[in-house]
Each structure stands twice: as structure tokens, then as C-alpha cells.
Amino acid sequence: MWRGCRPLCWGLSPAARLPRSPPGPAGRGAGRPGGGRAYAPPAERKRFYQNVSISQGEGGFEINLDHRKLKTPQAKLFTVPSEALAIAVATEWDSQADTIKFYTMHLTTLCNTALDNPTQRNKTQLIRAALKFLETDTVCYRVEEPAALAELQKNEWDPVVAWVEKRYNVAIGSSTSILGPSIPASTKETFVSHLASYNSWALHGIEYVITQLKSLVLSMALIDRHVTVEKAVLLSRLEEEYQIQRWGNVEWAHDYDLCELRARAAAGTLFVHLCSESSTIKHKLLQD
After folding, report:
1. What are the Gly residues biased-composition ranges (predicted)?
2. Which of 26, 91, 112, 118 has the greatest number of beta carbons closer than 10 A?
3. What kind of architecture, by CATH, is found in domain 52-110?
4. Domain ranges for the chain
5. How do residues 108-133 score in pLDDT, each as one tens digit?
């Protein structure tokens, strides 16, 4: 364990990207679900450490950069609940080259948010924020025209909606009305109960995934491993992909946005699973 080490502070919190567009290099301070402002670190910084390791402290697993202990933006000791998550975060830091690109470190970002909880939300508020997306879920809003897009939505979205309905024994449905489908109260109650089975750390990750995909349905299917990250992202961008196939795309912007969304969705999903992991991984402290 590292005792009396010089602390290191930095931070970045995940921002909700309500209109989907290529994100800025440091998360542009957009509003978060439930209020609050995003952390705004420098986009990049020269790497100042040589070695990354983890150690176990009284509150969990810590990240060490040489002889410095990592801290959160609010100067809290950066401590995570599982060894697997600590290794994943340490790998993010270890993979940085000459320059630290903070905007690529999604797991570190999520840990900072869970530790600092800048919007001071409790578990009930986190569940409510996640559930609110069901009322405007991407896969529940359908078009009537053009007919080709309507057919595409039916063919691609209906199977996922049907799977989630069967998996959780709920009714969701879809609608072409601007008001969206009428979600039964029993469906909301079922999801509240399910989300309550997760700890607060995992709920931060679930909300993050839902925010990226704009869909509780797709997020549940992804977290439950029914669909892959690539498939979930494709389904969340179905109308965009349809328009791109028809009209073409900006040469680099589409690929950048797609890769970034995949990275965020994958990181959020991994975060949920690692925060739900009770066992530890032995003898894997980023040693050569």
C-alpha cells in the first residue's frame, strides 16, 4: 500500500448528450440528467508519471501513479469497490502515451462521478432519472413515412422490444404519435424494482448508458447481454443510418461519432458489470 503519498486531483463527469452530435474533446459542460454541471478538465495534459499500480486500502482499491494517489475533482481519495474495476481504470491511465487524453478515459470519468456525486442524488433519484427515459424511448417512437424507414424500424426494433417485454414481463409497445406510447404504471413499477437491485455505482453507469443510447429498452438489452455494443448503437442510430444510406455522410464526422458512441456505451456497460462484481481478481496488479 502507498502511505503518505502526494495526492493527484483531476476530474471529468459524463455529460448527457441530448442532441446527438460529435462530442467535444473534454465533454462540453452540457447539462447532466437531474441537473448539475459537468467537470471541465483540460482536454489533454503531458503524461507526468511512469508506472501505474493499484493497492487495497480500507475503503476499497486505489490507483497509484508512481508514488501519487489518484484523487477525485473534489479531492476525495479515488477508491473503487472492486479489484476488477480498479484494474480497468489503471489500464486507462497506463494506456495513455506522451499525452493524457482525459476525454478517452470513460471509466475514470464514471468513477469520479460516482465518488463525488456532484448532483447529490440518492439511489431513488438515480432510478427516477433512468426511468424517465422510458417515456421518450428511441425505439418506442415510430414514423409512418417514408414507408421504407417505417418498415426498417419495425423489423429492427420490434424484436428487441418483444425480448425486453418477455424478459421483464412488462408491456411497452410503440406509437407513431408525437406523444409516444402510453407506458403502463405496472411496467414502470417493474423497472423501478429491477433497477433498485443495483447499487448506486452501477446506477450511475446504467444512467450513462441510457443517456448515450437514448433508450432504456436498448440499454437493458445491452446490459443483459442480449445485444452487442455494436448492435445497440446501430439500433439507437437507426434513422441516422437510414438517412446516411440514402443521402451520404460527412466524410469523417459519421465515423468519429459512431466510434465515440460505441466507446461510451461499451465503457458504461463494463462499468455496470464491474460495479456489480463481488469477487476480486488475485495477483493482477499491472505487473510486467
Report:
1. 26-37
2. 112
3. 2-Layer Sandwich (3.30)
4. 52-110, 123-279
5. 999 999 999 999 999 999 999 999 99
